[in-house]
Specification:
Elements: H1 2-9, E1 11-15, E2 21-25, E3 28-29, H2 40-43, E4 48-58, E5 62-72, E6 80-89, H3 100-103, H4 108-121, E7 140-143, E8 147-151, E9 166-170, H5 171-174
Length: 187
Amino acid sequence: MLFMLILLFGCHAKHDTRGLHVEYVNDEALTGDSEPTQDTEEENLECENDSSYNVAATTQYTITHCHSFWEYCPGAAHGAYGATYANKWLNEARTDEISLSDVLDINDSVKAIATRHYLIAKGYIPEDIDEIEAFSFPDNFIIDTTQITFVYQLYEAGSYMEGMIEFSIPYNELAPHLKPEFQWLLH
């Protein structure tokens, strides 16, 4: 990847006559107080991107569609990627998207359960979790046959290096908080 980035920016390394390593951009030596310039040809480079749609999960009554995407633009520090999920009813008479508040009664108890699973997904040891942080559910979630999975986009709950953070909660842990219309998930 670094090699590809170097080619994109026209950077190459040369050694001067004293054997010192010097970086050059467009055949001009870089100094600490100058900014590299880009060719007009490089300015015409376009971003690369791709996206796809697929089915992430199905249950007896629901389907979760996934739209995944990525993009890289020359000159950017790194690319971007993500996935959005849409939960729908399989019943053709119901065309509305299923929201999290349709599935769960969101209260402090549910937030405590979710926070515990979220912190474990981020690498915390359960015994070390003393207090519940302010917790915010992501917009992205997947209704599966045994659990609900929450997915945070890049930067939504961590750094780029952490990527898209996701965690799952088995329905049996959420049983008292499932709305009546979703009690079938327990069976």
